[in-house]
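Table S2 (continued). Query chain:
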Amino acid sequence: MARPIRTIALAATAAVLVALAFTGVSLCGPAAAWEGDSPVFAARKPGQSPTRKPGQSPTSVDADGDFRRRCQAPGVVRYFDFDSQEEADPRIYPPSGQKVKRGKIVREIKASGGGSLCFEIPSKTPADTSGSLWLNFKGDLSAQFGQRDEFYVQWRQRFSPEFLKTKYHGGGGWKQVIIGEGDRPGKTVYSCTQLEIVVVNGYHRGIVQMYHSCGGKDGQYEGLEVFDRKVSDIWLLPYNTGKDASQAHATAYTWYDELIISKQRIPDPAVRPSPPAADDNAAAAEVPRENHRAQSLGGT
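Corresponding output:
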């Protein structure tokens, strides 16, 4: 059976902080630079506080300029910078059945600009731990993709150590992004449709995976039954189907920033180089950090 979408491509860049010394606390996790250590740390013994080498300046990139350049690249149909609570709030939704939103714009942790979108994952919460941010590819619904169309989605995402280390009971793995059937004039389309592409860490395997359509799968190839719809909605959300709501665990956080949707490939974000250290062993032992990039192309 033919598939409605010929080629789907997504690029995700997540700077994951594993262990660093933090200063200050916000309402959405500890304050820190997006990619970990903002200064260049000198080699130190275990337990010793990080210090900058004398005369050494921080390594950096022009994060704001880099994001602007990617937003202005050919083919871009929409970008979202997560700098304004007023702009983001109408698009943020609370967890199902609740009224209090757990997504908010924070200033302390960001990839660029004035802020990022932070979701809190509290203890003893069900699958819909935090709600979501819901956005059409274009406000006037003019950017919709169907058969043989090609589009690209790029975002930056950061995870707290608690998010990565906690063994969540019962859950099928964290969904990170849902790209689904778009709204049409006079018709609002919600998530969980056949025409849907989901980025997920299935069963907490620690790798980026994708599946199409919402509902039960039998592990075999399943063609789609809807051919007259188009894709043009995106949901950013931490959602863990089957998560045990009775489990007590540490509060965790995830941050989203620099969302770009385009008809053409989007350049990768510039990443600040690793800081120099006195020796390679010190660099490996004293500044543990992981940078992950996943790029996936769909079928033809």
